Structures are given as C-alpha cells and as structure tokens.
Amino acid sequence: MSVLILTGCAGVLQDSQAGSLKGMLLEEKVGLAGYTTLGVGGAARWFAEAATEAEVVEAVAFARELEVPLFVLGGGSNLLVSDDGFWGVVLHMAIRGVEHKGDLLRVGAGEFWDGFVQQTVDAGLQGLECLAGIPGTVGGTPVQNVGAYGQEVSETIMSVRCFDTATEQFVELSNEACGFAYRTSLFNTTERGRYIVTRVDFRLREGGAPCLKYADLRRHFEDKPQPSLAEIADAVRTIRRGKGMVVDAGDPNSRSAGSFFRNPIVGKEILLKVSEAAGVGVDAVPHWPAGEELIKLPAAWLLEQAGFVRGYAMGRVGISSRHTLAVINRGGATAADIIALREQIIATVQLKFGIALEQEPVSVG
C-alpha cells in the first residue's frame, strides 16, 4: 500500500519520503471492508482522512484535479461497498469536538454517535436518549435522518454545517432546509453528493422528560413509570444488543449494516391486499398511520411472511437470528453475496405482496 502526500496545492503529489511537507496524508488502494460494519467490499483508489474543514476542501480539490468521484465515509455502519471497491477518493471524516452552549451543542461530524449521545444524557439534556447504541458518526445522522425507539434526529437538529461542492463554499442549512422526512433528507435525495457535512448543531431540552413512546421501552419500564434519561439510554442499548444491533466483535449477528430495508409507506388501499396475500385479517397486519391516506408497514413482518425468518441462511450470508431486518455477513461473505440475498428478498416480497422494498444502506462502488 503506497502513501502519497496531498499538499495545499490541489493535485500536487509528493513522494511519501517528503514527510516534512504540510498537507493531507493520502493512501492508495486501501481496503474498505474493515471500515464497515458489514465487513465486505473492495479497496479505495485513494483514501484520505480529514480532521479539519481545510482538509475537506483539499480532498475535494484533489478529486476534481484528477477528475475522479469522492465519497465521504463516516462510521461505515450504513454502507454496502462493492467488491470492486471505489475508483476515486474516499474521504474519512475525522472532525471531532463537542461545544456546549447551554442546550445548544455544536458537534464535529467525525464524533462517534453513541459517545455523543452519552454526553447529552450525562448532562441532563433530553432529546437523543432513545438513539443510544446506534453505530456510526454524528455527520451521518442528518443524511439518513436517523431514528429509533420513538425519536428522530430531525426533532433536535437546529442546523447542519456543510461544504457545498457546487459553490465551493461552507454553508449552514437550517432544519427546514434539510428537507427531513422518514429516513431521508436532501442529503440522500434531491442533493445527493452535493454537500459534505462537517458539523451538526443540536438543540436539546434541559431537564426534559425522557421519551417513552416505543412499546419495547414501555414494556421494559412497566414497573418503573419515571425512568431517568440514563436509564432510557441503557435500556435502549440492552434492547438493541438483544437484537444484535450493537456492534460487538463477539456477536456474529452484529456483522450487519443495521436495518437493511426501509419500512414501506403505502396507500391505505394496499392494506387489504396485504392481508389477503398473507391469509390473515386486516387487523392482524401491523401498520401505522403515515400521513393522509398513507400507512407504514413493518418490513420485518413482510420478510417473515415471505419466508425470510430470523436465522435464514444462504451460504455465507443470511438473516440475523435476532432481528429479521438485519442482513448479516455469516463469515467470508462478499458484496455479491449480500446483493444476491437482497435481490431474492425484494423479488419474493414483490411477488407476494406487490410491494417493492427499498434498501436502506448506501451502496458504494
């Protein structure tokens, strides 16, 4: 693996022996599997790590000089990297730091998410306690509008600071400008690839009551109706760990990208068709309101009804034995293996229910 130095002058490469030069360290042909929770994928043509906003600008300039694509990598918890890798620059976001200003927190995009959540809980700030235990970094949370157990980051994000690759300027986008919706934002829809998140500002609530919307949490605390923020966060981690959704080298079920499919949002008229296809009454189909004349169906239930139950195996890949929505690397899997199982699941659910499932992890390469 050779090493290059990126100087402040875009596209100027110096031999790795010139270590006294200031600039960003670049590595060539770096395997990406080890940077993802799924543990699959080929190599990046160039790999750089940005600890400052200036280094973000350098990386963008370098990619443009070589006329190759650039991909921003955070914690690697929501990625499916191709076996061919990525022919371009992978920018590993490492901007750290948490600045407290009362209930406003300014957080570097490279901060580890769960560690940041714990900081908020320890400070008595309510708003993120149900999002404990989620792998990845802060910068990835607005992109996907991360949510779990009754909370979404869009409920607390005040603004997102980004480098706009179209204008080559840093901008701060308000919550409204981010276009948040269920598991989406402008960052992964209409403006995919345009903005590089460098900081996220959160407004939390000092002394606020913890969120107890989710059934699993209510059951967990049925004998203790007023848990603390810390107890909620610990309970969420316990529940997630029980589903194999906390990264743990000793748990093969956690070798996944989390929930692999989004819960589909469909018209209310689809509910009857789903119940008929499943051979159950309408009331037996789990669903929730999702807007005018729309409902949300649990993708996990659709998978189970289609035969993809917990523990389902297909060679080196399969379904977690603890969580139906987690496609796992059972050991030695390739991205092609993951994709084959994905396609089988999508086709089977489409045939049985007429619903097209959407992959949640980002495909790279």
Written account of the structure:
The protein is α+β, with helices and mostly antiparallel strands and 365 residues long. 23% of the residues lie in helices and 28% in strands. The protein is built from 8 helices and 24 strands. The protein has a 6-stranded mixed β-sheet with strand order 2-1-3-4-7-5, covered by helices on one side. It has a 5-stranded antiparallel β-sheet with strand order 8-9-15-13-14. A hairpin with a 4-residue loop joins strand 13 and strand 14. It is globular. The two termini are 20 Å apart. The N terminus is likely disordered.
Topology:
Elements: E1 3-6, E2 13-15, E3 24-31, E4 43-50, H1 53-66, E5 70-73, E6 79-81, E7 86-93, E8 98-101, E9 104-108, H2 113-122, E10 125-126, H3 141-144, E11 147-148, E12 151-152, E13 157-164, E14 169-174, E15 195-203, E16 205-206, H4 215-220, H5 229-242, E17 256-259, E18 265-267, H6 270-278, E19 288-289, E20 294-296, H7 299-305, E21 313-314, E22 317-319, E23 326-329, H8 335-353, E24 362-364
Parallel strand pairs: 4-7, 5-7, 6-24
Antiparallel strand pairs: 1-2, 1-3, 3-4, 8-9, 9-15, 10-16, 11-12, 13-14, 13-15, 17-23, 18-20, 19-20, 21-22, 22-23
CATH level-3 fold name of the largest domain: Uridine Diphospho-n-acetylenolpyruvylglucosamine Reductase, domain 3
Uncertain residue segments: 1-22
Tally of structural domains: 3
Cα-atom Rg, whole angstroms? 21 Å
Integer average pLDDT: 90
CATH architecture annotation of the largest domain? 2-Layer Sandwich
How many distinct beta strands? Answer: 24
Helix content: 10-25%
- Give me the number of helical elements: 8
Per the principal axes of the C-alpha atoms, what is the gross shape? globular
Determine the structural class based on helices, strands and strand pairing: alpha+beta
Tell me the name of the CATH class of the largest domain.
Alpha Beta
N-to-C CA distance: 20 Å
SS strand fraction: 25-35%
Q: How are the strands of the largest sheet arranged?
A: 2-1-3-4-7-5
Q: Which sheet architecture does the biggest sheet show?
A: 6 strands, mixed
